[in-house]
Specification:
The chain has helices at residues 12-23, 118-122, 127-147, and strands spanning 3-7, 27-34, 38-54, 62-70, 73-80, 82-89, 95-102, 107-112. It is α+β, with helices and mostly antiparallel strands. It has a single domain (3-147), classed as Roll (PH-domain like), CATH 2.30.29. The chain has an 8-stranded antiparallel beta sheet with strand order 1-6-7-8-2-3-4-5. It starts with a strand and ends with a helix.
Length: 149
C-alpha cells in the first residue's frame, strides 16, 4: 500500500531543497487540477529541475516547480498560497511524486515516470542528501504514527 506523508510548513524550505537535489534530472509529468479548470496536463516527460519554497521574497508564500532543461522544453509553474505539500511513497518507500494544494483548492500533481530512486538510475549514491532526506521522512512518518493516522 502506498503512503502519503504531509510535509509540515515549517519543513517546506528544507524539504524542497533536499527533494530537488535528490531528484534532479528524473523524468516527470505535471498536472494542475481545480474545480474551475478540470485536469490540465502541464508537461509530459520533462526532466525535473527542482522545487523551491519562497515564504517571504518576491514570490511571497509560493512554491515554484521547474521542469525541463532545454529552452524549448522548459516550464516554470508557481503555486500561490500553498496550503499542503504531500509526498507520495511507493510500498517500497521510493518517492513517487508530490501533491501540492493551494488555498483555493487547486492541486498541482508531479509524478515521476519511474519510481526508482535517482541514485539507482545514475548508479551513484549521494549519501549526504539521501541520509538527510531519509531522516526527515523518518521523523514525519513517526509523527504521523503517533498522531494515529
Amino acid at each position: 500500500m502506498a503512503t502519503t506523508i504531509e510535509i509540515p510548513k515549517s519543513e517546506w524550505l528544507n524539504f524542497c531543497d533536499l527533494f530537488s537535489r535528490q531528484h534532479e534530472g528524473r523524468l516527470a509529468i505535471m498536472e494542475v487540477a481545480g474545480t474551475d479548470l478540470g485536469d490540465q496536463l502541464e508537461t509530459q516527460r520533462y526532466s525535473f529541475h527542482g522545487i523551491s519554497y519562497d515564504p517571504k521574497g518576491t514570490g511571497r508564500d509560493s512554491i515554484d516547480i521547474e521542469l525541463g532543461a532545454d529552452p524549448g522544453r522548459h516550464v516554470n509553474h508557481a503555486v500561490s498560497r500553498p496550503r499542503r505539500v504531500m509526498l507520495l511513497l511507493t510500498e517500497e518507500g521510493a518517492h513517487e511524486g508530490l501533491d501540492i494544494e493551494s488555498e483555493d483548492g487547486t492541486k498541482t500533481i508531479v509524478r515521476f515516470q519511474t519510481t526508482q530512486m535517482r541514485e539507482q538510475i545514475a548508479g551513484v549514491v549521494n549519501e549526504n542528501i539521501s541520509r538527510r532526506m531519509q531522516e526527515l521522512i523518518g521523523r514525519l512518518v513517526q509523527k504521523k504514527r503517533r498522531a494515529g493516522e
